[in-house]
Design a protein that fits this description.
Length: 241
């Protein structure tokens, strides 16, 4: 098993007033040659957006963009005609494909919104742009994995154009949970939203992350009540088929 530890303290931090953001991988003006991507996982931004603020319309192409609200709600509009609100408990995906424009604004004029925005390289490039979102019951992830994004229909997540899976769990202190990748040779990037856990002797605190590859499964032990996101992705990028 291979592991790479990314402590929260090593993330890039930018604060524009309306946006307070932490970057796990190279993004914008921050470029770290050691943190370009983890397999097909390209971006993991941890954003706080002030009330009444947000991202005006801007373009993307050939990227799978997943948004997971952690607090508050986001008002979303895009060039596919989608116009709606993504609330805490929802998961949103845009398959940007040949090109899409979208805006993401805090749905509240006063309260902040927090969310994770995650980019994954697609399996197939230049596909038709696609949008989806789904609400998930947090009770269904207590001490077990809740799949929120996957190309496998029976998983019940939003569909993603990649052999990748996103899974959430709320793991109680003292409990253990094993993750088994759904796709052969995939790696898993474990991002600790909150709490304290241990994986193969490595302790993680809030917003720490660890990339794991070269194993059929691994086990997480919770030292505190913890909220965990596991992002399973191919370790090689081949999107030209």
């Amino acid at each position: 098993m291979k592991t790479i530890f990314h402590p929260a303290s090593e993330r890039a931090h930018v604060n524009f007033g309306w946006l307070d953001s932490y970057h796990s991988f190279s993004f914008g003006h921050w470029q770290d040659p050691e943190k370009i991507h983890f397999g097909a996982l390209r971006v993991l931004n941890d954003d706080r957006v002030n009330g009444g603020a947000g991202f005006p319309a801007h373009p993307h192409d050939n990227m799978e963009i997943v948004s997971i609200p952690l607090e508050g709600a986001l008002a979303h509009k895009d060039s596919t005609g989608t116009d709606g609100v993504i609330k805490t408990g929802d998961v949103q995906i845009m398959s940007a494909g040949t090109g899409i424009r979208h805006s993401e604004m805090n749905a509240s004029k006063t309260d902040p919104a927090r969310f994770l925005q995650i980019w994954v390289f697609p399996k197939l490039e230049d596909s038709k742009p696609r949008y989806d979102q789904k609400a998930f019951d947090s009770k269904e992830r207590k001490n077990k994995w809740q799949i929120v994004a996957s190309p496998i229909e029976k998983d019940g997540g939003v569909w993603i154009n990649q052999d990748a899976r996103f899974a959430l769990t709320d793991l109680e202190a003292g409990k253990q949970l094993t993750y088994t990748p759904a796709f052969q040779d995939n790696g898993v990037y474990v991002f600790l939203i909150d709490g304290e856990i241990e994986i193969s002797g490595q302790k993680l605190g809030k917003r720490d992350a660890i990339g794991i590859s070269g194993t059929d499964n691994f086990t997480i032990k919770a030292d505190q009540d913890s909220k965990i996101l596991a992002i399973e992705v191919p370790m090689t990028i081949d999107n030209n088929n």
